[in-house]
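Quick review question:
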């Protein structure tokens, strides 16, 4: 073995590499969880809003039909 040469070491043995990869994984998982939560919340809100609008339109139409039948 020659003196002064570095032994072959895997880059995964480095604490810096492991910490960086771990931090990146946590960051990506956090972004994914936040986007999933926001999409579920937005979907629920859109469904509620559309339901209210449809009910409002149906009520207006029902009152208009009722008024015309009364005349």
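Suggested answer, residue by residue:
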């Amino acid at each position: 073995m020659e003196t002064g040469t570095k032994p072959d070491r895997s880059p995964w043995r480095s604490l810096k590499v492991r910490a960086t990869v771990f931090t990146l994984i946590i960051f990506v998982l956090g972004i994914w969880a936040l986007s999933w939560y926001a999409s579920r919340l937005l979907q629920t809100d859109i469904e509620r809003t559309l339901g209210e609008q449809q009910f409002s339109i149906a009520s207006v139409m029902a009152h208009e039909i009722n008024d015309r039948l009364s005349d």
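Why it works: The helical segments are 15-70. The two ends are 107 Å apart (CA to CA).
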